[in-house]
Design goal:
The protein is of the alpha/beta class and 219 residues long. The chain is 43% helix and 12% strand. The protein starts with a helix and ends with a helix.
């Protein structure tokens, strides 16, 4: 992974353990999250949380999550089969918002309407929408206009001028560079970043400034 960052000229990356993303976070937790942090400081771990009744989710409590000191967490309502608007999940979303921890949801997994509905239900929750795709530009612009705490990953906005159009519509500070690798292509989004028809300060904002606004960290 570090070799890939060097090859693409990327300073640091937020990463999610595949054990948690594709499998069951409960069984992956012992292996992935109770180990020491990544040895390379260029990698920022993004744990996958699974809100659920006692014994059915991960971690067992919100306080247990915060002991990991995450900058941002990820959730998969469809893949892990939980109700994003259920009482347990809503408790978690509100607590994340109160503590200033961002939530990442994958639009290709759970759908843009669900992302929008969570943003509407918890308007002070910072959210990062992953892999929205280039066909959603108008709906993305509408959502970002009414949900000021929602950010969008740029990796799958691959239409000609799509990132530029969205940046001009809602501001570059709402767009976060990402590749979705290894599931999605990494070289394409990196090439796109180098050739955006935007002011240098807007490109810098997309490259790293928006992530800092989202998480208060570095990646």
């Amino acid at each position: 992974m570090i070799d890939d960052l060097d090859r693409l000229g990327i300073a640091s990356a937020a990463v999610t353990p595949s054990w948690m993303l594709i499998g069951d976070p409960r069984s992956a937790a012992e292996y992935e999250l109770e180990r020491s942090p990544f040895e390379d400081e260029r990698l920022v771990r993004v744990p996958v949380i699974l809100p659920g009744a006692a014994g059915s989710g991960w971690p067992d409590s919100i306080d247990a999550l915060y002991r990991l000191n995450p900058k941002i967490v990820r959730a998969c309502p469809e893949r892990h089969r939980f109700d994003a608007h259920g009482s347990v999940a809503m408790t978690w979303w509100n607590d994340l918002a109160d503590r200033g921890i961002a939530l990442a949801l994958d639009a290709s997994e759970c759908g843009l309407p669900l992302v929008a509905s969570v943003a509407d239900a918890v308007p002070n929750l910072k959210m990062l929408m992953l892999t929205p795709g280039y066909r959603e530009l108008r709906r993305l612009a509408e959502l970002l206009t009414v949900a000021p705490e929602v950010f969008v990953e740029t990796g799958t906005i691959v239409s000609a001028g799509g990132v530029e159009w969205l940046a001009r519509a809602v501001g570059a500070q709402r767009l976060v560079f990402g590749t979705g690798a290894p599931i999605w292509d990494d070289a394409g989004p990196r090439f796109q970043l180098d050739h955006l028809d935007l002011k240098n300060e807007d490109v810098e904002m997309i490259a790293h400034g928006s992530w800092d606004r989202l998480t208060g960290g570095t990646a």
